[in-house]
Design brief:
heterodimer, A: about 220 residues, B: mainly alpha, Arc Repressor Mutant, subunit A, about 70% helix
């Protein structure tokens, strides 16, 4: 294809140029998503009822607090990676956020496993009792995950699958933090199976619908 | 993270033109694309070497820049934004080439396959909407979607570059979507 035709394309592109509105800044989009997460998480906790000893638990059980803080960090990192994945030129931010998110998940899993090991064999909860917290995590996470999808769909996601996985896992991690507000379980294994596992479950359950939504938005 | 600008305020100039282009200033946009062109060629040829398809990829980059100009934020540098789009266009081209090689092997067996079914008739609504498009856009949509030509074939028939044809078709699809609203065609 000749260079003259490229010059002709430049003229064609400049013709009938329409004004466009730039996408929102990443930090504004992130702030909005965090606000949505707080609102939905609070609404769900109000509906289900707050755990009465939550403030005391967060102060006295440092292991639980550390796991929740790590999950929150992983969640924010996942959302940032998903948002930045839709903006050309932000690849370094995507890589940094993914690295931070994975490190935070490793910390959450490590602390959670250490607590399980320290508690020793006891009256473990039957596995179906872990499911409600996982379901709450995915449900609460759905709103910020859809927010990331909308943003990336309006922008230009070169790797839609990576955007969908980051959004799904990150949002479910944040949902798992919200779920703790209503969770009455005291079994350390539940923190692992009902909360720390949520990003993986969220990625499995939410990625495909988010990917389909992203493709639809991109069209 | 801003890049060092050894090109005498190039980054600032480009950024200013892009912001003006986002507001609809066609003159600034043409200047921007004119200055971006050698930069884009450099990035693309640096990755593709002497591939004859390099100029096609350059055109695709220009179209991507055009279609995604709303993803540029004025507070960010423009150069990494353009470079990312160019890099992705080269990756896309490499993927398409790998796929077409696979398809090429398979299609050799399919040469004796029966002819494709006749084209579907246009619905009256779509025909009316097509009739309201500007000539260039209608021709692009017609060649690609009704006659089923490839972009290269359609561009040759219309006597324009593949990039220009894609742009006309894109504008045509968008206009059709607006004209047809929620109607299915």
């Amino acid at each position: 294809m000749s260079e003259e035709r490229t010059a002709e394309l430049v003229r064609e592109l400049s013709r009938e140029l329409e004004p466009v509105r730039p996408i929102p800044a990443l930090r504004h989009a992130l702030a909005l998503l965090l606000g949505l997460w707080l609102a939905v998480g609070a609404a769900v906790a109000l509906w289900l009822g707050f755990r009465p000893d939550l403030p005391r638990q967060l102060v006295t059980e440092l292991g639980t607090s550390a796991v929740l803080a790590a999950l929150l960090a992983a969640g924010v990192a996942g959302l940032v990676a998903g948002l930045a994945g839709g903006v050309p030129g932000r690849e370094r931010l995507v890589r940094g956020a993914l690295g931070l998110g994975l490190a935070a998940l490793a910390v959450a899993a490590g602390v959670g496993l250490a607590r399980v090991a320290a508690a020793g064999p006891g009256n473990a909860m039957p596995w179906p009792q872990h499911l409600p917290c996982l379901a709450i995590a995915c449900a609460v996470g759905l709103v910020p995950a859809l927010g990331v999808t909308w943003y990336a769909g309006r922008a230009l996601a070169f790797r839609p699958l990576a955007v969908a996985v980051s959004a799904a896992a990150g949002a479910a991690a944040m949902g798992a933090v919200s779920a703790q507000a209503s969770c009455l379980a005291t079994d350390p294994a539940h923190l692992m199976l009902g909360h720390v596992l949520a990003p993986a479950v969220g990625a499995l359950v939410l990625t495909l619908p988010l990917l389909l939504a992203l493709r639809r938005l991109e069209r | 993270m801003s890049e060092a600008d050894p090109h005498g305020g190039r980054e600032e100039r480009w950024r200013g033109w892009m912001v003006a282009a986002q507001d609809g200033d066609a003159a600034c946009y043409q200047k921007l694309l004119g200055e971006l062109l050698p930069f884009v060629r450099g990035v693309v040829r640096g990755r593709m070497g002497g591939e004859p398809a390099a100029e096609d990829v350059v055109q695709n980059v220009l179209i991507s820049i055009h279609l995604s100009r709303h993803t540029f934020r004025a507070e960010r540098p423009l150069t990494p934004w353009v470079r990312a789009i160019a890099r992705n266009a080269v990756v896309d081209w490499a993927r398409r080439r790998a796929r077409s090689r696979e398809v090429g092997i398979a299609s050799a067996d399919a040469l004796a396959a029966p002819a494709p079914p006749p084209r579907q008739e246009l619905s009256p609504g779509l025909a009316r909407a097509l009739g309201r498009l500007p000539d260039a856009q209608r021709e692009a949509v017609w060649l690609l979607k009704v006659e089923g030509l490839t972009v290269t074939e359609a561009a040759a028939r219309a006597g324009v570059s593949a990039g220009a044809l894609k742009l006309r078709a894109h504008r045509g699809y968008r206009a059709l979507r607006d004209l047809l609203g929620g109607e299915r065609w």
